[in-house]
């Protein structure tokens, strides 16, 4: 396997990571922003108020999209394993 092939493989892996982690990170960001707005409006400064909604949002997104994430990672893993014989040459 040549350097450009390896770079393309690495680029596709990083892109896959970005695509698969975006919904989870976006949900955590949105939940954190909403919790911060609620804290600012009500002047309640409890640490659990910012942590619990983020945790709930991340768990909800993982429950909804977990199958898609694992399926996509499985497809990518099979693709990488299929490339092993060509890398050994």
What does this 3D model show about the protein?
The chain is mainly alpha-helical and 89 residues long. The chain is built from 2 helices and no strands.
Rg over C-alpha atoms, rounded to the nearest angstrom = 19 Å
How are helices and strands ordered from N to C?
A: HH
Which percent range fits the helix content? over 70%
Q: Could you say which structural class the secondary elements and strand pairing correspond to?
A: mainly alpha
The span between the termini is 7 Å
Low-confidence stretches: none
Count helical runs.
2
The percent range for strand residues is under 5%
- What's the shape? elongated
Oligomeric composition of the shown chains: single chain
- Number of DSSP-assigned strands: 0
Mean pLDDT: 90
Q: How can the largest sheet be summarized? A: none
Task: List key phrases describing it.
89 residues, mainly alpha, 2 helices
Quick overview:
It contains 2 helices and no strands. It is mainly alpha-helical and 89 residues long.
Produce the secondary structure layout:
Elements: H1 3-42, H2 47-88
Helix pairs in contact: 1-2
């Amino acid at each position: 396997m040549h350097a450009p092939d390896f770079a393309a493989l690495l680029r596709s892996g990083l892109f896959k990571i970005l695509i698969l982690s975006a919904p989870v990170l976006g949900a955590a960001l949105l939940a954190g922003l909403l919790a911060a707005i609620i804290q600012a409006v009500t002047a309640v400064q409890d640490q659990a108020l910012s942590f619990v909604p983020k945790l709930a949002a991340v768990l909800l997104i993982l429950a909804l999209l977990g199958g898609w994430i694992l399926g996509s990672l499985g497809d990518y893993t099979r693709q990488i394993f299929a490339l092993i014989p060509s890398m050994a040459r």
